[in-house]
Design goal:
heterodimer; A: mainly alpha; two-stranded antiparallel ribbon; 4 strands; extended; B: alpha+beta; 5-stranded antiparallel beta sheet; 4-stranded antiparallel beta sheet; 5 helices; about 35% strand; repeat (chain B); ubl conjugation pathway (chain B); rRNA processing (chain B); WD40_repeat_dom_sf (chain B)
Amino acid sequence: MNANQAAESNLLASNQQKELEDLPKDYPLSTSEDEGDNDGERKHQKLLESISSLNGKDRQKLADRSEASLKVSEFSVSSEGSGEKLVLSDLLEPVKTSSSLAAVKKQLNRVKSKKTVELPLHREEIERIHREVAFNKSSQILSKWDPVVLKNRQAEQLVFPLSKPQSAFAPIEHVVNGWKARTPLEQEIFNLLHKNKQPVTDPLLTPMEKASLKAMSLEEVKMRRAELQRARALQSYYEARARREKRIKSKKYHRILKKGKAKQALKDFEKLQKVNPAAALEELEKLDKARMMERMSLKHQNSGKWAKSKAIMAKYDMEARQAMQEQLARNKELTQKVRAASESEEEEEGQEEEEEPLVPDMVNGVQIKANGLNPWMVQNHFTDAKEAEIQKDLEDPAEPEAQETSESEEERAVVEEETLLKEFEERRSLRQKSELNHMAEPVHSRVTKDPSSQEVLSELRALCQKLITENHQSGKQELSSARTAQREEPAREEEEPMLLQRPKRARTLDELEELGREECVENKELPRTAVEGLQLEKNRSNHIGAPKEKKRKEQMIDLQNLLTTKSPSVKSLAVPTTVQELEDEEERDQRQIIKEAFAGDDVIRDFLKEKREAMEASKPKDLDLTLPGWGEWGGMGLKPSAKKRRRFLIKAPEGPPRKDKNLPNVIINEKRNPHAAAHQVQVLPHPFTHHRQFERTIQTPVGSTWNTQRAFQKLTMPKVVTKPGHIIKPIKAEDVGYRSSSRSDLSVVQRNPKRLSIRHKKHLENNCVD
Amino acid sequence: MKVKMLSRNPDHYVRETKLDLHRVPRNYDPTLHPFEVPREYIRALNATKLERVFAKPFLASLDGHRDGVNCLAKNPKSLATVLSGACDGEVKIWNLTKRKCIRTIQAHEGFVRGICTRFCGTSFFTVGDDKTVKQWKMDGPGCGEEEEPLHTILGKTVYTGIDHHWREAVFATCGQQVDIWDEQRTNPICSMTWGFDSISSVKFNPIETFLLGSCASDRNIVLYDMRQATPLKKVILDMRTNTICWNPMEAFIFTAANEDYNLYTFDMRALDTPVMVHMDHVSAVLDVDYSPTGREFVSASFDKSIRIFPVDKSRSREVYHTKRMQHVICVKWTADSKYIMSGSDEMNIRLWKANASEKLGVLTSREKAATDYNQKLKEKFQHHPHIKRISRHRHLPKSIYSQIQEQRIMKEARRRKELNRIKHSKPGSVQMVSEKKKHIVAVVK
């Protein structure tokens, strides 16, 4: 026991010492605490201080508390300020072993184990939390109105008041009970009813009906119902599927579908053939008939809208051309007699494909030449066309009218244009001459065949220039000789392609004649190149009204002309001939580059054409009032006489001169009418996304003049209808099918305080957890 | 030989009575009726012009008050009855069909600050400057009886507004706080407060009836939940809101009439951006009321005019004014959505048509069809410049007109300044603030 105590006291002492060491130096010490100290100097100092503090002033000062502290010791010495708290364990340690204090210790331990209660939140904070929770709750309640509001906003028509007064239907029993038969007739009827045990009141079923109802057992009914249900479900499923499939727009899908169907049909047919040959035969006949019908129809001729549009597009678009070809092939296939369909058809098709790649460019022509059908023939042809042009150029001053007609009939009028065009012509002629020279050199012509390799071109440029200068003379000579040789040719040549193309389509007498003529040539000539293919297409269209061969020839040349201007590779080589000598190398290069870059598009010409068209369009049109068959014979193919036409033609007065009349490189659009513009909408109004949409709404008439009565009423339906004299109440939950809350607001409010407190607690707890 | 005769059934062409209409067979072939667009355009133009010709919205002026009309209330059960409270404490009940005052009560000393009717239409409540809430019977006193309120509640502070619950015997007053009262008690069942400023008006939500909205003079709008006895949210605007009105068809939409000449339509679930800012007034907006259809609302302004706004448009569709009408303090849209009443400073209550050119009375079916057609045509061609110009043209008093011009210049200047500021500062540092966001100072949770 003693030893124990001694140890404890020791411990305490050391503890105290620790504390003392931490104390600030000027801290007043009590004597009792001094005992364990062995630091003499410090003790002495303290002693001195305490003695000095015994003086009057200082004593009072000692009693004062200068620092804020929670505890005030009764000895005017506070334990505070050390920064160290008295911890429970410190107190417990000395009593560890004593058993008598176990209970106290336990209690103290329990106290220690309990956590401290946190400070309650600030009132403002609590209120804020409440508000937030309440807001979330009420906005949740409100969001149930979203669909209703949306529906009402988008509704075509809203009729107010929304809640209709419910027409009360009294149940039939009530009516019957309250009603008595008075007249003899009624009594008689009632008698009859009673005789048949017709129930007047509740079940409303006669015993017979009841029996019939009972006749079918429950299970049977159930089964039947299930069956019906299944059938209905299946039906709706198939319907939905069919609808879905019908709506698919993918071409690929349909193609695959079609192919699959065809395959299936073939398979079926084969199977049928094995099983039942007679039926198969019948089927075959049917198929044949279908084919014939198809053949008879105009569907596969090239007269359809699509085919026409493609024919126009074919010039510029590879795909369109291909599509057209395909279509032609199909047509041919269908119009073929069936028995010939075995080998020759395929051959022909192959031939056709070779025959009409329909590429207008020289480039391709050259390529084909490289393919090696008959290079000489092709070259011949090219030179041919060009020569004809050159010849024309030479003749130009002599016969300008011919040239003009060849260019196109529209060009006649404008003088400025002519000068411009002349310039063009000159250049072109130069170009072609050089080209000709080129042709004379087989090596170089080979090289030019590759249109894409521009580098090679530029390399060759210098070389070819030299050659050109060298061969200038000789080329001219050749040219003249060639001209003499081939003078007779062109007329024949143009007709040849036609002959190849349309042996079966000769219908008019004219064409028949041509056919006869061509046949002799056909033997000589081989299939043509691409250029010719196109020419022939164009030519055919040009031909129909024009019997004169000369004119045709000119047109031919013109086409050729167009083609040459469009071929970039040839041009790039051919451009510099005469001017080059005068210019520097750099300048020339620059020009060349520009020209190469814009080789394909003839901007000035396009512009002139556009302007001409604009002028044509703006010109007031003459009014022809001639009535065919009035005062003379009429009928198919008869036209009113020229005299008559002249008489009834009302000449439109000359409009005001165009503003851009004297401005050669400007087009001023005079279409805008300021008077009409005042009535036109300038900006696309809000809900519309495209002007076409807006135009469509404007263009659909609403009036009863254009619509049936029913449609008119539907179109002019007002958006909001109110009935005069009816009070419109605010919308209610019951109006739109929602269940309104059964609790009244008042009762909730009156019950609120209790609920509030509970809720508050809960929320607080939640908050603490958070 | 058989002779074939042309025969027709007389039923097809003979009228049964002479009052029947002739059957007119029509050919709808479009080639027979060309130029449909120009024809309809002209019709639309004419319809628009006629609309302006017949636009005479002013119906009647009810005079009898001896001071400015401060508040109006309509009877929820009767279209013809209107109540009005004046600045001298007088309450008058009017019969609109006769256009006469049928009863006068000296209800309060000082202003009648607010008036509202019970949902059943049997009694009404008034609050005044004398710190009292009084309940009155709608029917006048019997012979020999004295004009007395059913109940009187003496309060501690001045009440500035009152509104009745839409279904139950509860009403709410506002002053220093929002009080919810049971009709049977003399103490409020709960009072809710948030901040210490005086609240100028309180309104019950007509659909979700436990919700209330109020606006206080410290520029805020506060929403309350009556069931949970707590405020919900507060939005602070640039300037003071004078009153709010809930949309009777859309539970979460309300419109606030603000001192800064604008009206703000809010979705109460998202208060940080108003759904629409309605601009056109040139002075403080004092009152607003929704049409019972919930498609439009009418606003009364200090600039001596009334304007009608579609809910989804920021510009007004109509402006009403007369030479004699002074600052309009209160306005109400009648329960059949055909008329508008306005009470103004110069002691008169005016009755207007909600649609200025509408023909009153019973329409024949043909008239109705014609008006529908014209309406449709106007709608169809509304974007065309001529029609737009004519249909938008209004005569305005000089004061309003010049104010509009002036404010336009000011607005333009402000805009230019903002643009300049954006242009001359570091890109991205100054942002353009949209008109909707501009006026919202803060949303307090």
